[in-house]
């Protein structure tokens, strides 16, 4: 008889509960990854909504002077350079209006989402949220397809998207906490919480691929992805391990049920020092032990016999807002998260545009470069989780990481001001965005290909 392959031996070494736990870890990771994937495109597209027309003007001026053509009129036209209504001088305020429209709606919706989510099935609640998030994300991209130039349309889409996106975080956190206990939670949450950075990276790469050619697809594709993941959530998400026990109990044979309840048995373990209950799993043909102690250690061991245990099914009552505030550490950690999110969302929405303006890079390159921030977020989150598990001091770990973030931000500002900007003033060849724009003007200005400038 041939030996069993080592891969198969590895697979069968894990029991059913471990497989389901791994499945829920991966599934919730992917679900919230799709949320951040759909949030990221706006930061990539900003530099396309208001393009860096000054550099294009400078290149065109050099080109016209080198070819001895008459001086050209201003090339900063509404149609060719920026997308209305973001072509005005107050474009930063308009772009910021879209951001705080999303974030204000997200803040209000997060409070309401926690209240509503505790009273509805998580799987259905999360599915509806993901489908509607996909709808509004695609709707923003359709503004390009249908040539919509009204600020109110984009603000409305951002507000609606901010409200429905609040279904994600409370739902996936509740689900993952149901499946994993407190042991090694730092490492588990460090790995799992990297979904935000992974989603930002994927969102940057996907949006950057179409940003210069058709920025509407930068929203439509992520919108379709999160909608598809919503369908996956509906078919596969298991809210709690007890849901599986109920399913297997319902599928057990009728002969092993009394008054509609499965038979439970008492059995001593560990040299008859503790008594536990177990129930027969007719599907897997094995015993599943409950961790509830039935008898004290010093009790007399009776012979194993069937015992019918009837428990009243009751859902835990939802906690009130004031009740949550009275939990030790909630206020302190909430304030820490407030200021951490202040920085992270600033980078989320503005870092690509900042790189575009300071380094004179096109939207795609700026988006790719901005992913390095999220790469550091993945490494830092896992490292913080491991350290907190080793030390057992999660508050101390959080405080140290936040203190280290302050000088890091100052260093980033210094490098951007004195390093990145001056050293990457212009590439040896015009950027892809600048070259494509100049080629559009070729017929109007009679510029030849040789006159496209090479800046030294």
UniProtKB/TrEMBL annotation:
Its main location: membrane. The keyword Membrane applies. Keywords: Membrane, Sugar transport, Transmembrane, Transmembrane helix, Transport. One of its GO terms (cellular component) is endoplasmic reticulum membrane. The chain crosses the membrane at residues 19-37, 94-116, 122-146, 191-211, 217-238, 330-351, 371-388, 395-415. One of its GO terms (biological process) is phosphate ion transmembrane transport. It is found in: Membrane. Residues 27-456 form the Major facilitator superfamily (MFS) profile domain. Belongs to the major facilitator superfamily. Organophosphate:Pi antiporter (OPA) (TC 2.A.1.4) family. This is Glucose-6-phosphate exchanger SLC37A1 isoform X3. The gene is slc37a1.
């Amino acid at each position: 008889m041939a030996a069993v392959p080592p891969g198969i031996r590895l697979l069968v070494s894990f029991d059913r509960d471990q497989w389901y736990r791994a499945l829920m870890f991966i599934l919730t990771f992917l679900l919230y990854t799709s949320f951040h994937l759909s949030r990221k495109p706006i930061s990539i597209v900003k530099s396309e909504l208001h393009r860096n027309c000054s550099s294009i003007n400078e290149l065109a001026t050099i080109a016209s002077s080198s070819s001895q053509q008459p001086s050209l009129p201003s090339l900063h036209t509404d149609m060719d350079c920026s997308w209305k209504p973001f072509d005005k001088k107050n474009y930063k305020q308009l772009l910021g209006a879209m951001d705080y429209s999303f974030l204000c709606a997200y803040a209000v919706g997060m409070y309401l989402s926690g209240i509503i989510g505790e009273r509805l099935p998580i799987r259905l609640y999360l599915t509806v949220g993901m489908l509607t998030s996909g709808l509004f994300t695609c709707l923003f991209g359709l503004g390009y397809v249908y040539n919509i130039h009204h600020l109110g349309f984009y603000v409305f889409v951002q507000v609606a998207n901010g409200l429905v996106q609040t279904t994600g975080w409370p739902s996936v956190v509740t689900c993952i906490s149901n499946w994993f206990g407190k042991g090694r939670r730092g490492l588990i949450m460090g790995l799992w919480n990297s979904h935000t950075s992974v989603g930002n990276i994927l969102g940057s790469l996907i949006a950057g691929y179409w940003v210069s050619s058709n920025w509407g697809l930068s929203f439509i594709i992520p919108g379709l992805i999160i909608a598809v993941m919503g369908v996956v959530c509906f078919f596969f998400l298991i809210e709690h391990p007890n849901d599986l026990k109920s399913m297997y109990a319902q599928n057990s044979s009728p002969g092993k049920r009394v008054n509609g309840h499965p038979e439970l048995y008492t059995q001593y373990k560990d040299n008859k020092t503790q008594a536990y209950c177990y129930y027969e799993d007719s599907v897997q043909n094995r015993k599943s032990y409950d961790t509830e102690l039935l008898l004290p250690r010093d009790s007399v061991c009776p012979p194993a016999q069937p015992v019918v245990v009837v428990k009243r099914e009751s859902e835990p009552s939802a906690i009130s807002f004031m009740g949550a505030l009275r939990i030790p550490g909630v206020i302190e950690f909430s304030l820490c998260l407030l200021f951490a999110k202040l920085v992270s969302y600033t980078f989320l929405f503005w870092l690509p545009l900042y790189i575009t303006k300071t380094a004179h890079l096109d939207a795609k390159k700026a988006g790719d470069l901005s992913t390095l921030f999220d790469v550091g977020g993945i490494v830092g989150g896992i490292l913080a989780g491991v350290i907190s598990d080793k030390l057992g001091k999660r508050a101390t770990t959080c405080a140290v990481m936040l203190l280290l973030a302050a000088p890091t931000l100052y260093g980033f500002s210094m490098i951007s001001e004195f390093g990145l900007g001056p050293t990457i003033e212009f590439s040896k060849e015009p950027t892809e965005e600048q070259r494509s724009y100049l080629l559009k003007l070729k017929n109007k200005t009679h510029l030849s290909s040789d006159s496209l400038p090479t800046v030294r």
